[in-house]
Amino acid sequence: MEARTCIAIGLLLFSFHLAGRASGNIDFPKAQDVTWSSYNFKTLLSWGPKPTDYSYTVEFYGVGKDRERNPHCIRTKNTDCDLTRMLTDLKETYYADVLSEPERGATSDIVEFPHTRSEQFCPYKDTLISRPDFKIDVDKVKNKIVLYIKDPISAIYEGGRLLNMRDIFKDDLKYRVTYRKAGSTGKKVQLTDTSQMELDAEGGESYCFSVQAFLPSRSLGKQLGEMSRTQCSPKEPKSIFEEYGLGVIVGAILVLTVLVIMVVALIVVCCRRRRAAARSEKEDVLRSPA
What we know:
Elements: H1 2-23, E1 32-39, E2 42-48, E3 55-62, E4 68-69, E5 80-82, E6 94-101, E7 115-117, H2 123-126, E8 133-139, E9 144-150, E10 153-158, E11 161-164, H3 165-169, E12 174-181, E13 188-192, E14 196-200, E15 207-214, E16 231-232, H4 240-244, H5 246-287
Antiparallel strand pairs: 1-2, 2-5, 3-4, 3-6, 6-7, 8-9, 9-14, 10-11, 12-13, 12-15, 15-16
């Protein structure tokens, strides 16, 4: 009897479940770990888990602004949404909601779908700037090294081209240059307001540089971009006087001169001895009786 009761209750619950699915009144799981990620202003919103019998829709909005939707992120099975071209005001602070909804073609009587809100995000303040490229030019006459820094390209398309970081940040963009003598561990840091930096250098010395974007208007944890690869200026070959110094060279010359004199003197002494020996032998021959 108890077994029959349990079976009946199970069938009843299963029928309610099917009825709920048929009427579209089933609750959908909320999105989790809704996160912004932005690199050179290419901005993605991501979340989880992967949906099964439901889908996701993304809504985003600026503070006090109307909600908007990306057409590619409506009732999608994906767990990310590219909002790069949708966030047109780079200095605006945005929020996003990820709604859990029925699959495409399905209906539901639910008035408000489960949703999860993101943290706030501002492209201008939060995007990560990639490592810059730069070129090193050595002025041998003035003993100066000049760095020419190439502003990283953004994902923002305007006026028929992709904007670079200088186009977007203008005077807010600076560069932090870390440098040292090649072979040395002591480092120095210098800031430049432009995409060019000039450094006084010791003649013939090689210097190694790395560069990263610096935005002082940002919060401390987001002021620096990615660090560039390290590049070193070529080392000029030194003259013998620069390499060893005048004192060492003069000393070496004196030592060499003394050695030459000693060798010459030894040769002269040997030659004289041979001549004397030859003369003595000749005289002995002449003195001997015939």
